[in-house]
Amino acid sequence: MTLVQVRGRRLGLTNLNKVYWPDGRTKGDLIAYYTAVGEYAIRYLEGRPVVMSRYPDGITGKHFYQKERPESTPEWIETVPVAHDEGMRIVNYVVYRGLETLVWLANLGCIEMHSWISKVGTLAHPDIAVIDLDPAEGATFEQVVEVARLARTALREFGLNGFPKTSGATGLHVFIPVEPRHTFSEVTRAMKIIAEFIVRICPFATIERIVSKRTGKVYVDYLQNTFGKAMAFPYSVRPRPGAPVSAPLRWEELERPAWRPDDFNMDSMPERLRTAGDLYEGFFDARSSLEGILALG
What is the pTM (predicted TM-score) of this model? Predict the structure, then answer.
C-alpha cells in the first residue's frame, strides 16, 4: 500500500502497478491522470451522486456497476440516500466532493467517472440536459459531427446553450446547462423536442429505439435525461483501448475536424488542458430556462 495526502486526506493506494490496459497502462497511471486533471473534472462532478463503474482487473477483466456505497467507504466520503422503485428501495450513493473523491474512486478501479445530471440539494431537478449522439453500425463519425452541428442549430433556435464533447467512444455528447427547476421528465421532454427537430431535417439522424432499425444512422438519444441515469462527464477516462477521454470541444473544432475521438486520451489530455484551457469554463454561467421549449408541447 502507498500512502498519499490529497487535500489533507490520507489515502492508501493499492496495486498501482496492476496493468489496466493491454498497452501497459496501469492503475497508477489512471490515478496520476485524475490527479493531474482533477481540479478541472471536479468542477462539473462536484455534489453529484456517483454510479461506480468498477474494473478491478482492467478493461479486459470482469467489471460491474455499483450504486450502493462500499462497506469500506471511509467516514469522510459524503453519501446521499436516494429512494428508488417508488420508495421501496433506498440506495446510498457516494457523492463527488473534491479531488480526494476522484482519487479514492480510481483506487477502487473506477476507470470512468459516471455521474448524475443533478446535484445534492436539487436531486429531482437536473442542472444539465444531455443530447447523446451515438452512431449505429454503418454510420460514420463524419455523420455524427454533422448531426452535432445540427444540434447546435436546434439549440440556438430554442434559446439554449450547448457545450460539445467527445463521448470517449465513437460518438459525441452535447451538455446543456439548465436552471435546476424542471423535473427529469420535463427535461427529457424538452430534449425530445430538440431530437425531433434534428430528425426532421437530417435523413441519417434517428430517434428509433430499436437498435436493428438504426443501421447507417446516428441515434439522437434524449433518454439519457431520465431519473437515475449516469453520464461520463468531461475529462472522464473510458474503459476502451488507448484510454480515450471524454474531451470538451470548441464548436469550431466540429467545422472541419482534423482529429479523431481517440486523439483525446489519458496521455494527451493534460497537455491539451495546458494549451487550450478548460473549454467548459463558464458552463454554469450559461444556464438557460426550458420554459419556452416546454410550452411547445
Answer: 0.96
